[in-house]
Design a protein that fits this description.
This protein is of the alpha/beta class. The chain folds into 2 domains: 179 residues, Vaccinia Virus protein VP39 (Rossmann fold, 3-Layer(aba) Sandwich), CATH 3.40.50.150; 57 residues, S-adenosyl-L-methionine-dependent methyltransferases (N-terminal domain of TfIIb), CATH 2.20.25. The chain has 7 helices and 11 strands. Helix 2 crosses helix 3. The radius of gyration is 18 Å and the shape is globular. The termini are far apart. Pfam families: Methyltransf_25. GO terms for molecular function: methyltransferase activity. This is Methyltransferase domain-containing protein.
Length: 250
């Protein structure tokens, strides 16, 4: 089953507990520390544009790339309301194409965890390197092995005013793959509910492996931090941020 189809319409409602303002402030802080205070920035795996909008409001010229037409439709609607000059492109992150290079690429909210094979992650890293300005930066986050292990096999359910979901989670330790089956009930016309079913897969990557793939792609690893603390990742870190730099095209 394809992911982010039926879920797209209620994604923001179920993610209303995500502190996007704090996340974007942290990301902007990292960018400014790297000397990137303006210019073109690509949001890779932008979804409904929650982070893209906030980075645009912070003064960056934003491009958003996502492979879900349904998610981008919502992002475009937000753009119409805000009037921000964001360019959205319906593209797979493994094959994205830009019109030129950008000062930075960001990818957050565990978008890269959706790449299940090392060669897929390497392909994205190479594309990012290709489209970065000389010396440009790549900032991305990843859910960790520890987080998926803590989730393990469980069932989560939430009920909202106009929708509800059941999340059945399974973690395959040997493959380091996390699977979650979503069953959604979304209110439509005449108070009738439609049922949607989606299956999502994410993979955890050890930081050592990520460093090796960045190097192979021509990117220079600059550092890794526990999300929102700025400290080095530890064994109980659930999300990490990685910073890499363009160091010369091959």
């Amino acid at each position: 089953m394809e992911a982010y189809t039926g879920f797209a319409g209620v994604y923001d409602e179920f993610m209303d507990n995500v502190p996007y303002d704090e996340w974007s402030a942290y990301l902007v802080g990292l960018l400014k520390k790297l000397g990137i205070e303006d210019g073109l920035v690509l949001d890779l795996g932008c979804g409904t544009g929650n982070m893209t909008e906030r980075l645009a409001k912070a003064g960056y010229d934003m491009i958003g790339v996502d492979n879900s037409e349904e998610m981008l439709e919502i992002a475009m609607h937000k753009k119409e309301i805000s009037g921000l000059p964001i360019l959205y492109l319906l593209q797979d992150m493994q094959e994205f194409e830009l019109y030129g290079t950008v000062r930075a690429v960001v990818s957050v909210c565990d978008s890269l965890n959706y790449l299940l094979e090392e060669e897929d992650l390497l392909k994205v890293f190479r594309l990012v390197n290709n489209y970065l300005d000389p010396g440009g930066y790549f900032l991305f986050d990843l859910n960790t092995i520890y987080k998926y292990e803590q989730m393990g096999d469980c069932v989560i359910a939430e009920n909202r005013e106009h929708c509800s979901f059941i999340w059945e989670n399974t973690y395959y330790e040997e493959e380091q793959i996390n699977e979650y089956d979503l069953t959604l009930f979304v209110e439509g016309d005449h108070s009738l509910y439609r049922k949607f079913e989606e299956t999502h897969y994410q993979r955890a990557y050890e930081l050592k492996k990520v460093k090796g793939l960045l190097k192979e792609a021509g990117l220079q690893f600059e550092g890794a931090y526990e999300a929102f603390t700025g400290e080095e990742p530890g064994p109980a870190s659930e999300r990490i941020y990685v910073i890499a730099r363009e160091r010369g095209k091959r």
